[in-house]
């Protein structure tokens, strides 16, 4: 008797192919999830950088002696400037906790903070939490802090440091920008 040759795959071959396909599919899914996370992080950083640049522009268009461009000495009673900021730049927790422009971490918060509620109500407060009138950027997903140092780095200038933190869904990211404005006469 002659045996017929049957064309096809054995069960073992099919199982090995399924395992190889499953491993490849798992790798593709893992890379996709990583890519989605990286895109969310990039979006948070880009959005924070855009809001920081907008806020720097808003502040630099104010008159030199505007209330929002004054170093707020209400906590320490002195203009400490930005010269004592340590490198790397402080975290948002350090800023809100008081370690913004002094070596003493408990001594001083940022000069000004802008927060927008989920309902779209924008408020600006000074270092002790007192509300201040001024132009407000009603961005719900960002908290904006800024500090002003007078006569820094040279006399008759102000250095503005704007810190923007994304507070919406996704990763919380912080961007810090500095800008120096000369006294305008």
Residues in helix, %: 25-40%
Q: Which residue ranges are poorly predicted, with pLDDT under 50 across at least 5 consecutive positions?
A: 75-90, 97-108
Structural class: alpha+beta
Q: What is the C-alpha radius of gyration, as a whole number of Å?
A: 27 Å
Q: Give the assembly state of these chains.
A: single chain
* Shape summary: rod-shaped
Distance between the termini: 111 Å
- Count of distinct strands: 6
Question: How would you characterize the largest beta sheet?
Answer: 6 strands, antiparallel
Order of helices and strands: HHEEEEEE
Tally of separate helices: 2
Mean pLDDT: 77
How many domains is the backbone divided into?
1
Query: What fraction strand?
Result: 15-25%
**Strand line-up across the major sheet:** 3-2-1-4-5-6
Provide an overview of this structure:
The protein is α+β, with helices and mostly antiparallel strands. It has one domain (28-182). It contains two helices and six strands, in the order H-H-E-E-E-E-E-E. It has helices at residues 11-60, 92-97, and strands at 112-116, 122-126, 131-132, 142-150, 157-166, 174-182. It has a six-stranded antiparallel β-sheet. Strand 5 and strand 6 (174-182) form a beta hairpin.
